[in-house]
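Lab notebook, bench 4. We co-purified these components, and the gel suggests they stay together. Before we commit to crystallization screens, I want a quick structural picture of the whole thing.
Request: model the full complex, all chains together.
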Amino acid sequence: KTFSFKASNYSLPLLSLVLFQECPPPTLFDRKSSEELDMDKVTAAMVLTSLSTSPLVRSPPVRPNGKPGVWGTGKGPLTPRTDFKPFRSPPDDGIDEAEASNLLFDEPIPRKRKNSMKVMFKCLWKNCGKVLSTAAGIQKHIRTIHLGRVGDSDYSDGEEDFYYTEIKLNTDSVADGLSSLAPVSPSQSLASPPTFPIPDSSRTEAPCAKTETKLMTPLSRSAPTTLYLVHTDHAYQATPPVTIPGSAKFTPNGSSFSISWQSPPVTFTGIPVSPTHNRPVGTGEQRQHTHTVLSSPPRGTVSLRKPRGEGKKCRKVYGMENRDMWCTACRWKKACQRFTD
DNA sequence: CTTGCCGGGAG
DNA sequence: CTCCCGGCAAG
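Here is the predicted assembly.
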């Protein structure tokens, strides 16, 4: 029903993972004495409690090669920068939790602080920012207000999860907390991982973010730029979010999150293919601004190779032993001139 | 693996 | 400029 329930739910699979590691040989599927089973239970319980109650659990540097992703700088029309993933390990504590770190895995586990923290849920819809105290409430809000599902009120496909985020408030400074809800920087406790400051504008997102906002086709109102990650408390959203330029689609079907590339939406309107283009000679340093500056990241030095001609060329026709019968181009290992396509 | 050939080096 | 080759990509 509520968040805590979900959290424990998500912890269970991970727990089983832990258990796999803890029991030396894979005797899990063998018959086990009830004693052993009890041991497992106990272990599980211990893990659970340690996960859910220890104030902060130290973690290895969060996923070594994981790029910071787009944390921050929400640029889309809907500017949700929902970043406060409960990444544990602020720099100042977590010293006495050494043993708990053994039980950790890469994925951050949604957890919440218990002391004087109040969990709220904030609508991320553009210009909305409604804050409710229950997930159900916010889902209903989104469903009815934004998604326009008035009739079948209780129909939910989980889509609402993408449109709100969980926020933590310090109860003694609620007013402050509310003011900091603006999607700028949640200076509250659960800030972004302290190791790397904020994102880094690693070129993959900067240009394409711009592109997005410019070329944004009138999107259907039911999909407020969710490509810019909206984080909720789901396991599959726990990893640092990634923006995929071009066209990406995600399928929120329960627990999987798939992103698929498609042809980059870039049409390079470069120099026309007329044979009478004159080279910029000498003095005139005139720039040609015609080409659009759109660029998709994965395209670096694409040399636009020719598809490869089909017919046999000198090499194949005459063979290596008759190399002197080849055309010169073939001898130079250039494009054949005798058997052109 | 083979084949076509681009990019680049040597002279 | 001619001549050659490394290495890549397509098959």
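Chain A is about 25% helix and 5% strand. Worth comparing against the SEC data before the next meeting. The longest strand of chain A covers residues 117-123.
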